[in-house]
Write a structure and sequence with these properties.
Blueprint: E1 2-6, E2 9-12, H1 58-85, E3 94-99, E4 105-115, H2 123-137, H3 145-173, H4 177-180
Parallel strand pairs: 1-4
Antiparallel strand pairs: 1-2, 3-4
Length: about 190
């Protein structure tokens, strides 16, 4: 998921992976803990340390397999965001983890923070930055709903930058006449 940091405010969009995987892997609001499906919760007596694969039941092996698949999907998703974000990423990817029945932590959600603020006084640079934000948001093979929202926000930022750029170009071509008012020749 893409998370944006803009000016003095910050917005976080959590990726909802439940559409692609079982509900056990869905993430929640940023202010809440990751929820676990009861089927994925491990017996506390069995999760006190690493268990060897041979010691796990068939159902635990299935859970471990699903968690490994989920971990790979989440990490690939966030890596795609990070690679496309380039210099506008404000850090690396961060992940939410769930402990499997084998005692290993698996990524079940994640985010990449990017700077989504416009470039002050430079609509052309803002336009380029909006394009980068849009590419970063849509970089994963299956962008999430929040990723699509981030891309839409970048499209809106690009539209505003285009308006500013057109106005700036028009002002340059007109020699700023439109902003100086109308001149009237009062000589007789």
């Amino acid at each position: 998921m893409i998370s944006s940091v803009s000016n003095n405010s910050s917005a976080v969009w959590q990726t909802d992976y439940s559409q692609r995987q079982s509900a056990a892997f869905s993430t929640t609001d940023p202010d809440q803990d990751v929820q676990q499906d009861p089927a994925l919760k491990t017996d506390t007596s069995a999760s006190t340390g690493d268990k060897k694969t041979g010691e796990l039941s068939e159902s635990d092996l299935k859970v471990v397999s699903e968690l490994k698949q989920r971990d790979a999907e989440v990490k690939a998703h966030e890596a795609a965001h990070l690679a496309a974000a380039g210099g506008i990423a404000t850090g690396g990817a961060s992940f939410d983890y769930q402990q499997g029945p084998d005692g290993i932590q698996y990524a079940i959600g994640g985010e990449v923070n990017i700077d989504t603020s416009p470039v002050p006084g430079d609509p052309a640079a803002t336009l380029r930055k909006a394009d980068t934000i849009r590419r970063a948001a849509l970089a994963p093979a299956e962008p999430s709903g929040p990723d699509m929202q981030a891309a839409a926000g970048a499209t809106a930022m690009a539209a505003q930058a285009q308006v500013e750029l057109l106005q700036k170009n028009q002002d340059t071509q007109n020699g700023n006449k439109d902003h100086l008012g109308t001149k009237i020749n009062l000589s007789a």
